[in-house]
Every structure is written in C-alpha cells, then in structure tokens.
Amino acid sequence: MRLALPIVLGFVLATLLGACTTTGDTERYKQEDVDLSTAAELNAKLGLAYLQQGNRKRALEKMRHALDLDPQRPITHHYIAELYRQLGQYDLAEEHFMKAIELDPKDANTQNDFGVFLCDQGRHEEGVKRFLNAIKDPLYDTPGQAYENAAICVLDIPDRERAEKYFRLALRENPFLPTALYRMAEVSFNEGQYFRARAFLQRYHSVQPKSAPSLWLAIRIEREQNGTKLAQEYGELLTERFSGAPETQLYLESMNHE
Q1: Over pLDDT 90: what percentage of the chain?
Q2: Architecture of 178-258 per CATH?
Q3: Domain spanning 1-104: which CATH class is it, in words?
Q4: Given 3-state DSSP classes, what are the helix, strand and coil percentages for the chain, each rounded to the nearest 5?
Q5: Is the model's pLDDT at 4 over the cut of 50?
Q6: Which of 17, 44, 135, 148 has a C-alpha 20 to 30 A away from that of 221?
Q7: What mean pLDDT is reported for the chain?
C-alpha cells in the first residue's frame, strides 16, 4: 500500500551543489574553519540532494560520512532512513527512523515520514499514531497532508468511517487537497451518497485535470443520478483522451450491457 502523497523530506537542496567544488567524480567541501557538526550537516544535505537526483550510491556515501562525523544529528538519521526504505532495507530504515525520533521527538516531518513507512509495511495503527504526532506540532506547515495520509492508511484496513473522518479533517486544513477530494468522492459513491460524491468530484476537477479514473467515476455518479446526457459527455471524453485505459474498457463494456 502506497500513500498518495510523496514523502516530506524537508526543504529543497538545489543550492547545496554550490557549496562544494567538483573535480571529476570527487566533491571537496570548503571546510576551512568548519567544525565537524557543520560538516556532518553539509554531508547529510548533499546526500539528500543525491537521493532526490536518484543517485542512491553517492547518497549513501555522503549520509554514512555524515553519521561518522556526527552520529547524534537527527536529520541525518531521517534522511538515511528514507534511503534505506527506497533500497528495500526495511530493518535499517526503521532503526534510523527510531533513532531520529529518539534524538528529536518533536520533529513533525520525521513523524509523518515514519508513519508513511509503517503504513506501507501494513502496520496501520502504528502509522496513524505517527501522523497524529506530527499534527500535534503547532508549527507543522502541512497538517492536511498528515491527516490525508492517516485516512489513506486506515482505508487500507479497511476502516471507512475513520478514513472519512481524517479526509474531512484534511480538507478542513487544506480544502484543495486533490487526493482527499477524490477519495471522498469515491467513499461517498460507495456509500450511495451520489449527490455528495458529485460535489467532491467537481471540487477535485477544479484543482486537478480529468483523468481516466476520475471520468469513469463521474460517469457512474451521473448514471446513478439519472444524468444520462452528462454521463454520455464524460464517456466521449474518456474514450477520446484515454482510449487505452482500463477504465475506458470498463465503460465500453458497460455500454454493451445497457
């Protein structure tokens, strides 16, 4: 199970590449008068920059070096935990997530990202606890995402009642979260609340381009609401834009059975 939103790793590090000089494949920090702690931070951030570029080998080298320089820096444990998660080394990922939280229990980004990790491992309740821990931080700038992640996590149990609760809280924090809007449209449709499903899907389409899944959902909603003409318009758009999509095949099969 994958959560809908990308993992939050903090801030953009494009400027970091200007903090070192490069000769061939070797980076040399200008570390005159720089203490070990600062050097560790620079290595950790450069490691994250490599990770974001997809260069996991260089990322691991930099992050390990950062830990050698200062093993008590929580952000390094956070970054290397995410790297190990991507590498599928889940025991090491969890070890470093736990260490990062031990060193800085109030860091909301680490709590959120550890929640993502736990939910991906099927440890739903543990994951939700981490998302709610993140939200407790009054300075956390994306509480809506944490609520959304919690909703998606419990939906996988499935616990639709709690999922709806968290989706609503997510939209209270940020009314334009596309994943929450789309999932609420799905939940409402599955519960037979077609008018509400239509409203959520319309809001979704106001912030996201129409896709094959969203058009197929719109078609089914309109059919339930006797909106035959609008359902037909959505169907034409689906077949025109997404001729090879599985949803298009489902639509065409449904037309044959009418």
Answers
A1: 82
A2: Alpha Horseshoe (1.25)
A3: mainly alpha
A4: 70, 5, 25
A5: no
A6: 148
A7: 88
